[in-house]
Amino acid sequence: MRGYHFWNSPLRNGTRVPHASVLRVGISLMPKGLKRYYGRGHLHFLTFSCYRRLPLLNTIQARSLFVHALGEIRERYKFLLVGYVVMPDHVHLLISEPAKGTPSVVLKVLKQRVSRDLRGSKRRAPSGQLRFGVDGELPRFWQPRFYDFNVYSAKKRKEKLDYMHANPVKRGLVNNPAAWIWSSWSFYAKGEAGLVPIDRVE
Ligand code: NI
Question: Which of 19, 48, 108, 133 is most buried as measured by Cβ atoms within 10 A of its Cβ?
Fold first, then answer.
């Protein structure tokens, strides 16, 4: 979809008043009033964007590098990867809470890792590709904020998976989700392992 995904933002969608027990389980107050609700065993639908929404993931190499890093971070932090899509300028993930840390920590590490790896490959980047880094044109790779929507029902889970898998088609990148390999579509539609293993949650 175009534009930021404010409908996934706690600011819009999370107008539910947290129950007292939720507050005890754990909230981290984020800048600009974004609240994260952890410790409930919910899945988290995470949305984050490239710096200034620039298409920094607009190459096959960059998207594949991202998915590779995602697989490694998932092994290290032990979370379930239920679904994902890597778009040219943003990413959606549907994950469980990790055994170690929180979804927020996972994202921080993942974003740092991808940023570092792509900076390392900068010299090999084809001319004309957007550059970033201390000696590049852009100060950073990722937009600092991310949106976190707690997913706690099968209906919402399916809705988010369908949304992610349709995203490349709606954006006009491909005519069929099968043609966009940087998502969990092939796992759900065809039972095929894609670029990274997917965890089915019932
Ligand atoms: Ni999107």
Answer: 48
Distance from residue 98's CA to the centre of ligand 1 (Å): 23
Q: Report, as an integer, the average pLDDT of 44-58.
A: 96
Q: Which helix (H) or strand (E) holds 92?
A: strand 90-95
Instruction: Give me ligand 1 centre to Cα 129, in Å.
Output: 22
**The CATH homologous superfamily of the domain defined by 40-190:** Transposase IS200-like (3.30.70.1290)
What is the Å distance from ligand 1's center to 24 Cα?
32
- Locate the domains of the chain by residue range: 40-190
Residue reference for tokens 């010299």: 123
Other CB atoms within 10 Å distance of the CB of residue 89: 17
Q: Which residue has the higher pLDDT, 153 or 18?
A: 153
164: CA distance to ligand 1 center in Å? 7
Q: What angle do CA 42, 165, 121 make, to 5 degrees?
A: 95
Q: For the chain, what is the largest distance between any 2 Cα atoms, rounded to a whole number of angstroms?
A: 54
Q: With cut-offs at 50, 70 and 90, classify the pLDDT of residue 39.
A: low
Residue (of 5, 125, 132, 106) closest to 65 by Cα position: 125
Q: How far away, in angstroms, is 50 Cα from ligand 1 center?
A: 12
Q: What is the pLDDT of residue 138?
A: 82
